[in-house]
Amino acid sequence: MFSKILIANRGEIAVRIIKTCRRMGIKTVVVYSEADADSMAVEVADESVFIGPPPAAQSYLLADKIVEAVRLTGAEAVHPGFGFLSESAAFARRLAAEGIVFIGPNPHAIEAMGDKIESKKFATKAGISVVPGHVGEIDDTAHAIKISEEVGYPVMLKASAGGGGKGIRIAWNRKDVEEGFPAVKAEAKASFGDDRIFIEKFIESPRHIEIQVLGDKHGNVVHLFERECSIQRRNQKVIEEAPSPLLDDKTRKAMGDQAIALARAVQYDSAGTVEFVAGQDRSFFFLEMNTRLQVEHPVTELITGIDLVEQMIRSAYGEKLPFGQKDLKINGWAMESRIYAEDPYRGFLPSIGRLVRYAPPAEGEADGVIVRNDAGVREGDEISMFYDPMISKLSTWGKTRDIAIDAMGRALEDFHIEGLGQNIPFLAAVMDQKLFRSGKLSTNYIKDQFPDGFQGLPPTDRQRDLMSTVALAMHRTLLARAAPDQLRTDWTVISGLKTLTMSATAVDGGLTILADGRKLRLENIRWRPGQPVFRGALDGVDFTVAVKPAAEGFVIRHRAATLRVLVLSPRSAELHEKLPPKKAADTSKVVLSPMPGLVVSIDVTTGQAVKTGEVVAVLEAMKMQNILRAERDGTVKAINAKSGDSVAADEVLIEFA
Prior knowledge:
By secondary structure, the chain is an alpha+beta fold. Helix content is 28%, strand content 35%.
């Protein structure tokens, strides 16, 4: 077995690979850019090698730097993780020429299946049903428009070397192609060093289902069942699960057989994923193959008990697969939620900053469920604008889908992050939705369920009771310290737009509370002044809420519901009703930066008349380009930024007269 492996990646996947290597007794080396000098991966690896500036094109995408690091440290093999050079046949060949083992498939398999254009050609020749489209490279925007109109709108513009949701746009009309094609090429170049684009028909209301395959160098190939990855935003997977609630045994076998047939045809010899687009009637079409470890591999590991990283290493070393297809079975159900540094309340735009607080739920097995959190960050780390905004991948396992969903909801509730925007409230909202629990999913789920964007969910009656009792308990604790002579029994609690008359009595370390005549019991209280989370049990059910102080009360969030809760004496409540409502600031005459990022272009000039919907600027953050449009007609009064500037969220870019 290898004695030392170099990991040509960063973040959580580098840490994930290190864990398996450590268990196998293999030493590890990680490479790192300036932005990752103090990263968790650098801390936990046995060795680390600096390879350049933060932009991936100047560090993680440079094969010469990786090979030099291998030579410097004496590593015998390279695991590329996912993204960066993981699907580069040229990189795999370069390593082979240098006598270094590539922990991934052979270069021929990468070329045949890893390249999205070539894989479609290959699948078509093999007689496998593929999504209609143009299987070939696109010369320029005019060529893209011509092909799109031949295929018929809507179409998808996709990077040939793409993955991870980068380099993808849906075009519903000619204008979308004109604007989207240059942006996709730029994203593809920045993320993968390859700006080739292809176009295929966009199938509406589809499901995204993928089959995990695993092969060795002796001709053995198996599949490890499927993953459902239909919950997406901006073509980026957000929630995955295994198995899929759509498939029956017959369809699962048919998909698995096709995946194995494709893998065998190219002599596939590592972990890979064959992706399908499926209809609600269980019809399916080959979409593409990712010739690497997939981001969502933990759910497959949880339902099969197989460490995919270990099997990749063993296959690269030349060992045979230790099991056949008949030995593999689905055990239980697994969910994965991707925790992103993004603001779901602002269209899921990236949110860059420091993890002032980072407190994930406890990992391990308890009460019949498993919680797993794959992360490459610690409290105090900074999420950089140069890379993918993923913070961690939270996974849960249970005997049934409902148990796995319940476990995920509770784990998300117990996950606390401060310092930047994050999507935990959104993920919790999905777990609590009846439609999601029914298993009736599609890649349009987020757009259909949150057509006006995500603004949280209204609190249920239980959540209102929970947040009101928590606010009362905290208020009593603070008052007992600051002014114990003012501690009283009766209070008026205003939660959102609802007012409750509440009384509280301390009993056996907890509180017995009467809320408009209803009796509630708050127990197992774990909170001290200054702490950002409050843990307890309401009527015997454990919970965790995020809490922040506010005037005369608190802002409290439980899962996707947030309330400002005021705890007042009856007299203060009377006076509160007479306060005038606050007016929102008028931002109709300015264009604000929706996120921290880099200004790619300012597309207007001072004095220019602009119509609603016209492009005024383009920003880039975390390898994604975002087009800003005018929200009203007007004349440009002032421009406060220029191409190349770094801007903060809510910074005024353009002012209108």
